[in-house]
Amino acid sequence: MECKMEELEPSELGTHDYWNDRYEKEISNYLAHGDAGEIWFGDDIVDRILRWLCKTPEIEKDSSFVDLGCGNGMFLIELSNEGYTNLLGVDYSQKAVELSRKIANEKGYNISYKRADILEGLKCTFKVIHDKGTYDAISLSENARDNRQKYIVNVHNMMSEDSFFIITSCNWTQVELMEHFKEHFQMYQVIPTPTFKFGGKEGSVVSICVFKKL
């Protein structure tokens, strides 16, 4: 039986204006204080993803990576610190791209960043596609159901048979993500995250799923 899930209520976090305004402020803050800004979901989640990548032999140091909704670009900087070299960050906010470029250039990292909207698709394939929060933001947009479907199809089109799609979400559980992606993807692995217990039930605040294309 198909599991039907309600859409999330639209939020300002699902709007282009919100993210442009946010990253314009973060550019000013970086120029004034050298603060690169927030690491979404925290250092622990980033460390868990990095550990998984480093112990996955199919993913080599020169494998092609794209970070969807790269924000300030700090995840790709962490990848570069681990020796990965073929790195691209994309964001639909031009201000986010400007910030990530400033940080990478001033710190001497050879990372590419460009403005691109995943809902419009990217005409490239990648070994690793990474999303930490972008699908969540799309889920908070107007017309979220249609936008989520565009996202799913476009990510699928960016993958070859040996590609990996890593998604981190705080809005959707592992089971819900599997339901959303089941027509185009199969679950490959779940990266464990901290769990909590409440009322006799156990759950996670954040879900990290690795998918392969069908």
UniProtKB/TrEMBL annotation:
Domain (Methyltransferase): residue spans on this chain: 60-190
Sorted UniProt keywords: Cytoplasm, Methyltransferase, S-adenosyl-L-methionine, Transferase
Main location per the UniProt record: cytoplasm
BP terms from Gene Ontology: methylation
Enzyme class: transferase
Keyword Ribonucleoprotein in annotation: no
Gene Ontology cellular-component terms listed: cytoplasm
One matching Pfam family: Methyltransf_31
InterPro entries linked: Efm4/METTL10, Methyltranfer_dom, SAM-dependent_MTases_sf
Subcellular localization: Cytoplasm
UniProt GO molecular function: protein-lysine N-methyltransferase activity
Protein EC: 2.1.1.-
Domain of life where this protein originates: Eukaryota
Function comment: S-adenosyl-L-methionine-dependent protein-lysine N-methyltransferase that methylates elongation factor 1-alpha.
HAMAP family the record matches: Methyltr_EFM4 (MF_03188)
Similarity field: Belongs to the class I-like SAM-binding methyltransferase superfamily. EFM4 family.
Name the UniProt record assigns to this protein: Protein-lysine N-methyltransferase CALMAC_LOCUS5858
